[in-house]
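sorry for the late reply, my laptop died twice this morning and i had to redo everyting from scratch. anyway the thing you sent over, i finally got around to it. pasting the sequence first so we're on the same page, its 321 residues, then the predicted structure underneath. double check i copied it right bc i was rushing
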Amino acid sequence: MKLKLIALSLFLTGSAYGITLDEAVKTALEKNNLLLAKKYELKEKESDLKISKLRLLPTVDIYSEYNKTTDPPYAIMNRMEVHKLDMRGTNFNDPGKYQLFKTGVRTTVPIWLGGKLRIAIDLSEKEVKATEKQLKKDTERVVFDVVSAYYNVLTARAFVETAQLAVRDAEKHLKDAEVVYKAGFGLKSDYLRAKVYLEQMKENLVKAKSNYEIAKRALNIAMGLPPSHPVDVDGDLTYRKFQFELDKLIETALRNRPELKELKVRLSQTKDMERLAKSDFLPNFGAFGEYFMADDKVPWDKENSSWVLDFRHPLTCLMVV
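ok and here's the structure:
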């Protein structure tokens, strides 16, 4: 039971040894709100791509309609639909009210719509690629922010340690000045100066501790944790010398930066948008089929049935250069 309480305490207050840089980056990649939002956006774009591909498939609609009218043309058509029009006994100017139930299924098959559907798929695929580049860019930004915040915490902690040493030195100096002054071998001004210096060092310590707390809160925000979450870092400030060639760094950036790759995808999308606009002037081909049953009493009976097949091709067609 005691071990469980100790483990729970460590979980709530954070590790006694603090987190490493790798752990901080891992936490940020899992919990940073910016990355979570971008991942959801990527899923949305992937769903849009699936929807675009589904538009290539035929659509099937099952329907059931009911109408009741006294409008002469439609009342007569309702009677004709179920083969109950009496040419001799019907007053065509005032046929009276008549109802019609109509139940059927219709399907539409897009054969070729000027390339619109394929272009829409291309646009959706490139939108997914562009969002992936954005996610990679945001990931690199988050990692950079976490690393910066992590080393800011290390720096702030080092300033706290330095300020604590300065306070201890000032306290020792004040004690020595007080002993010398009370023994009659020193000036009161030296004693007062040492006392003022101690207060200044204490003030610097308060500032250093405040900056340390601010740095830890900034690290929490970068990792996607609540600002007040208890956290400490495990590491030391060490100087490492790196040697780089500027030309190679620029070459690597131009080859690998996700922002540039995203812009290339966006440029390709603008060309697809131009193709999409031109497709409005191209002919469209489609097929349409329908089967229905009609009755004047119930929707599921069949006084009459009929089927329709239709092949459509708009005549509006302009030459596209």
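The first helix runs from residue 2 to 13.
thats about all i looked at so far, will dig more tmrw
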